[in-house]
Amino acid sequence: xxxxxxxxxxxxxxxxxxxxxxxxxxxxxxxxxxxxxxxxxxxxxxxxxxxxxxxxxxxxxxxxxxxxxxxxxxxxxxxxxxxxxxxxxxxxxxxxxxxxxxxxxxxxxxxxxxxxxxxxxxxxxxxxxxxxxxxxxxxxxxxxxxxxxxxxxxxxxxxxxxxxxxxxxxxxxxxxxxxxxxxxxxxxxxxxxxxxxxxxxxxxxxxxxxxxxxxxxxxxxxxxxxxxxxxxxxxxxxxxxxxxxxxxxxxxxxxxxxxxxxxxxxxxxxxxxxxxxxxxxxxxxxxxxxxxxxxxxxxxxxxxxxxxxxxxxxxxxxxxxxxxxxxxxxxxxxxxxxxxxxxxxxxxxxxxxxxxxxxxxxxxxxxxxxxxxxxxxxxxxxxxxxxxxxxxxxxxxxxxxxxxxxxxxxxxxxxxxxxxxxxxxxxxxxxxxxxxxxxxxxxxxxxxxxxxxxxxxxxxxxxxxxxxxxxxxxxxxxxxxxxxxxxxxxxxxxxxxxxxxxxxxxxxxxxxxxxxxxxxxxxxxxxxxxxxxxxxxxxxxxxxxxxxxxxxxxxxxxxxxxxxxxxxxxxxxxxxxxxxxxxxxxxxxxxxxxxxxxxxxxxxxxxxxxxxxxxxxxxxxxxxxxxxxxxxxxxxxxxxxxxxxxxxxxxxxxxxxxxxxxxxxxxxxxxxxxxxxxxxxxxxxxxxxxxxxxxxxxxxxxxxxxxxxxxxxxxxxxxxxxxxxxxxxxxxxxxxxxxxxx
Length: 742
What we know:
TIM Barrel; globular
């Protein structure tokens, strides 16, 4: 097909006079011409970032190589031509089902809305793969362009994955793709297929949470390339009686497909079991990119992270206890003052000002309770807005059902339904100037309502220098154990980033807080256990509202959860710290220096990397900034000293150079000295610190100084030294002779 392109480019000289240069392309194939055409189009900010990724450095051949850790998701549609409202990444197949497993595997996801943004001239090197989302509708006129771009991305080495559907309809485009990708069949839907049967199902991947059953709906005449690994295959006859084959799940050299109706079984609103194991399937899809240390946001200093935050709803509500104390008073006396955890407390400004409907206590008294709570040493401050908006993004096509835009007010509000200046900067200013003691600041904003903030609200928070949290819908339980119940840790909104809470709150567990209360929210312990094994995918996040203190049963559920957490081997951090390390994980660079040798570059908040235990152990002596490691299930968790640049050398255990190291700590460790002869650290927490050193000579005597007082300690039979220390301590461990633990 011939193609003619004529385009004028405008220039201005130093005096402002304009001139034009015409660019012409003649006799070019359609795909090549489109590629050239895109290369000379002016790009928006988003695409410019793709063309020249900030911070990317070229690496010499056979030298250091930055691991591509990004996955680009193509989604969306042209709103005008499709007559559908725009969609957001949170509502895509990838956002709902696949981003969480990708994050666990060490990848971060970026989204490109084909209805809003042009494709970049070529796929940047930071992307390991491209996923064509099931929620994509490619305009007919752009099919050739998109198909050509995908094939070009594959030639660059990117892996492709079609999820949900095959979004091409033009015969010549389908022909190009089938020829290039080795697909067989027409790729068209088979109408009224008969004799539908399962042809093959790969053991260990397919038939994972749901068993595949023969289904005639969405049956495509599409067979995998001959060399592909087919994970699920069906056969049938078309209306003419001809045998047809459909391979909805397969992997091949260029990537693969995972198509409907065999992605999840939509059993109910609460249950969506996977037909194939998403962790294993995605790991095999990305296998050509190699195994690398995954930035891990669930663990720090060798222990699973704990953090807690309270949404401000119900702060000034009256409880059902004798004398009807405020819910905030009960949370203060039975949770905040009892359990030595860092807990982030938020308030709704209109509640504390007495402007919300139904507030019966005098406003000065409510404010005094808030001031006392914020003065507690284990409490950090956050805002939960002024009026608790239920819907944050006016153009959101999927906002949920709400009767009111926000909390009911005593007086009809004179401000707009959503006034971002009042909700965000205004509420933060009120907290800082009215409620907080010297030395404390509000640095975190907790989303309210549907927790779908949209880009404008996120931008407002970011420009104020605040962090944001809430959203996601992690609520996996023993009743509904499907992995689809695990939400991703972040979500993009037009270039802005939302950080999701690690699990849901009591409103969801207690049936919209309609009960049961004790047997409702207490089931969050199931979530904590199911996200710990067989793989640790989330930290422990105790997240609730002040109205949990309304009833005796709901308050007892809250106490049970905190008692459970106190009995676990956890590492306590604040909600703000969790947000920062989550964002740092997204920006972390992993650079391969050689076999079993990597450099990590980040902001220092993300301090844990994870690898399969079968790959070996860190050689502490040859590494740089690596302070220790521990094993959980089939993974090793490697911790760093928090410096911006660290280096890991991995070896077989028997080849590791003898060196002491930190195995785990319940509190953050600040390293003063780390050598084979001496470990010198400072620790600080709200409770006694548990710390374990390893890599020491077995059953040997060590000299230990704790806050200046020398003691003698003996290691155990495995060469470990287990310590329980004061909440604030400096420890110096002197080792005249170090031997590898055998």
